[in-house]
Amino acid sequence: MTRCLFAIVSFLLKNLWMAVLWTRFSPVKPGPRTIEMRAFRFGQFRLFIWEAVRSTLKIVRTIPALRKPG
After folding, report:
1. 48, 57, 64, 65 - which has most CB atoms within 10 Å?
2. How far apart are CA 2 and CA 5, in angstroms?
3. Residue 17 near residue 42, CB atoms below 8 Å
4. d(CA 13, CA 19)
5. CB 35 within 8 Å of CB 26
């Protein structure tokens, strides 16, 4: 069951990434449309999505301390 959920989420992420590439990174020129894949890598897209989720859910990465350890 969870494997199917992860597969669905991964397909949705890939489709969303391809839609962004098609609309934002496909230069307008005569002839067939091509996508500049090097302009926006999937790893960078995943990082943007993760940071948006982290800021929305207010996930704490570090605990602030008043003094330096050591």
Report:
1. 48
2. 5
3. yes
4. 10
5. yes
Provide the CA 56 distance to its chain's centre, in angstroms: 14
**Residues 21, 40: contact at Cβ < 8 Å?**
yes
Report the 3 state secondary structure along the chain.
CHHHHHHHHHHHHHHHHHHHHHHHCCCCCCCCCCCCHHHCCHHHHHHHHHHHHHHHHCCCCCCCCCCCCC
Report residue 69's pLDDT band, with 50, 70 and 90 as the boundaries: low
pTM of the model: 0.63
